[in-house]
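Self-study notes.
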Amino acid sequence: MKAAGSAFPILQTARLCLRQPRASDAEKLLAVTQDDDVMRYYGMEPFTSEQEALQEIDWFNGQFEKAEGIRWVITIKPHDEYIGDVGFGLVPRHARAELGFKLARAYWRQGIMREAIDRVIAYGFEIRQINRFEALADPRNAGCVGLLESFGFSKDGLLREYEFEKGTFVDLAMYSLLKSDA
């Protein structure tokens, strides 16, 4: 995933810049994780401190350093402020990546995540030579499911009671997009 000394890739779209996470993003990341609507189906508890957000940023950057994946911060040009993040964990042996993303509620329904994911998928297929993108989605999250399906992701199946979240077991649906599908 990362060659020795290689720089973190910055991805651009018409209105977005996807860049490396920084410590200065911690306050905005914390706020996003504390929004119940954003986190309803995300599968993790909200952060309770900026320190937890900083640890997440370290984890994001560690993924890239260890060649285990990549996570970009989403910003709207020309502003350089965190509004969400998008990226993937990588299984190089199988040319497979698991897509993940979140976006501040104020930016929902503006095509921002669609634009970001489109760029990330193109990067994955063209530059990283990924063959299969996967995404786990809570079937109750109609917005996420609709977004994945709009890219041509197919539902591979339902993982019954796959995770324990907020005191209960929840189902997750496995979606995939193959390079040959794109």
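Second protein, same conventions, sequence then structure:
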Amino acid sequence: MSEREDGSMKLFKDIDLNLENRQKFFEKVGIDKNKVIAAEIVHGIKVEVVDKSSTKVISGADGIITKDKDVFLSITVADCIPVFMYESEAKIIAIAHCGWRGIVDGIIENMIVKILGTGGSVENMKVALGPGINECHFEIKDDVLDKFENYAEFIIKRDDKIFIDLKGIIRLQLKDCKISTENIEDNNKCTMESDRYFSYRRDKPVVTQAMVAIIGIKN
């Protein structure tokens, strides 16, 4: 068996394992898998409002929003940052997959605009940043440095290397959208630093597992 074929066999095995682990997690927290709606994840800025009748995977989206109870919104991450949003008055929930491209291109602003358009207000917004790659490990090269030209304060140069504070950029964007800093929580955990989390950068070139992030309101 060739190395390539062996890698493919491992990939198929891990896909099955991922599905099994996902189902075990849903069962543990009391969530019906048929009530879960997932974003496809394309490292973009598309945000969709969904309801109980929506398809189970929202094509082309990295952010999803709903006002329906007993609907659970889901994304997968393995260094990218899961951002959870809850509008407490209108009972709107949302979740976004925030990779660096989506962050600099405006997925956070798109999420807020969509929530406001769904009847929410920034005054009642609660936001939580889940585990993701921190500035200690998110290294970039010169070829994409210009993408962060509007966020110079979050560029760290150390030992002839360039690092970016992605969570810092997200917090700034939320502040610019008038979200109170008191309503923003940050997990502060770095996925690459701890083997408690799956990490694309740490485990590449063969990365076959990711974490699921989920938000919902039970009836």
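Instructor comment on the second fold: The longest strand covers residues 81-87.
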